[in-house]
Amino acid sequence: MLARLTTLAQELAGAFRPSTVVEVVARALGELLQPDRVSVILLDAESNRLAVTYDTYPVPARTDDPLLQLALRRGPLAFPREVQEEARRRGAELRDAVPGSWLGAPLIAGARTMGAVSLSSDRPGVLGEAELTLVSAVLAQAAIALENARLVELLSSAKREWEKTVDAISQAICIVDAHGTVRRANRVFADLIQTAVTAIPGRPWLGLFPPPWADPVARAIAEPSANTVEIRSGERVLLLTAIPMAEPGSAVLVFEDQTDRRRLQEQLIQSEKMSAIGQLIAGVAHDLNNPLASVVGFSDFLVEAGEIPASLQEPLQVIRQEAERAATIVKNLLSFARSQEGERIRQPIRTLLDSTLVLLRNQLMAHKVEATVEVEAGLPEVLINANQIKQVFVNLINNACQAIASDAPSGRIWINARRVHDAVAVSVTDSGPGIFEDVAARVFEPFFTTKPEGQGTGLGLSISQGIMKEHGGRITLDTRPGSGATFTVELPISVPLTRAEAAPLPPGDVKPLSILVVDDEPHILHYMRATLESWGHKVEVASDGTYALERALAGPFDVIICDLRMPHLSGRDMYTKLAREDPRVAERIIFATGDTVRGDTLQFLEALGRPYLRKPFTLAELRAALGHAAKQPA
Known about the structure:
This protein is an alpha+beta fold. 47% of the residues lie in helices and 21% in strands. The strands form 5 sheets. Strands 2-1-5-4-3 form a 5-stranded antiparallel β-sheet, with helices on both faces. It has a 5-stranded antiparallel β-sheet with strand order 7-6-10-9-8. A 5-stranded mixed β-sheet has the order 12-14-15-17-16, with helices on one face.
């Protein structure tokens, strides 16, 4: 028996689960005392309720079993003396439950009752005082083992809760002690250093981190504070905060990955730069359009005069053509810089593609890339926001050009527009190296880029796809490594709307008018006066908005041609004052502007419902505007 008790003690010392302790004790008692039945009830720590955890009978005992309850209340008891006395008090219910011999004892650790054990036998006298002493000794060991198992279970549960909690935190966390050893870490930290989370505890932190991290981490541990330390590792940017613990030299290290946030900040800064560039383009365009207006205007004036020597006709034509070319470039820049959400007009796709290539001509030439455009005959117009769709084509052609430049000293881009069912499909094909399948599957993802850091935002194609979805279309990719790439833009075709255009009138069809021309550019005033007077109109000029306002109110003018953007008193302010003081005069204004990049400016012009001139305008456009004004009632 002594050997069995020794073995029992050893088994209990290695049992760390309550169920294991109960099974070991029940098996030992069964071997030592040979009872017919062994029942065990334990108090559940969480619910604070008794539960039957072991019973050798097919039908388990209940927690309210009279004998088990008696053992809980009275302490170690052996049948028959104590039970018979209780039976006399309790009556027939208990007597029916009394076996031939029985003993029971509670499980007590310290002052806490944890449960009870009862053994019974159909044979009278088998279980008596001597057996009760043995059972009490066994249960004393069992109670200690159960308490230890409970503590181990609590510790294990706390560990699991800690792991789940810290693993749910997005920051990487590790705890280091005063000896530089990592005690614990969460899974985010394990992923950060690419080490299994179970292999981290017990290792020196110096051996876990990449070498470039050693100095900043050491400084953070030596002087823990609320301040953060920045750590860079390749493309990644981390912020480290060291929180001191009770033991000097120990700390909780918290790493927060700032890579995506920094990338987003850089992209926002880049967006702000692009916005500033757009405003700069607007200002430069205005400043260029004014001298271009003079060049185009005087060229038209000299051509209409008809007294040009033969030797000067060709130079004059070149001047006219180059001025128009410069004006087209400025117009394309303005169009690209404009931000007018939701403004959609119907136009042919060929015009849009040609203007896009004009914007990118220098870049294509620099990379020795030849771009050709083929448009299917009879292709219907598409209803689009031209600026947004132009942005899509700029991005696609740019990407194609860069792909070619990365692989060869020169190459070609084929742009083909055709009708496919109820859509206009424009494909952009390059002679570059193509795109691998794994990359092709991600090209439309935001922030995904194959370009080196600082050379690509990864937003171009995702924004382009978003623009296409807003237009009811899409972009698709067809590529194979070594065979170039083809991006296809599909734009839906909608029912066309009819639009009446006023035909320009010849010079003789416009009656003589009294015209006030307002502009702060002397050369524009010069050619406007010369041109309009040659057409038989009476012309007065003003270079200042304030003076022009006085003249407009004082004299009867049929038409007032006014620059929109002027110092001191702008054209819009002049119109506002005229509308307040004499609305009939305000209705005779025709605005001229070299800058319509701002959406509010364009809305203002279109809200007037009157013709307006975009610098540099041709004399034909000027004549058409005058013809429209001449038809209005005075």
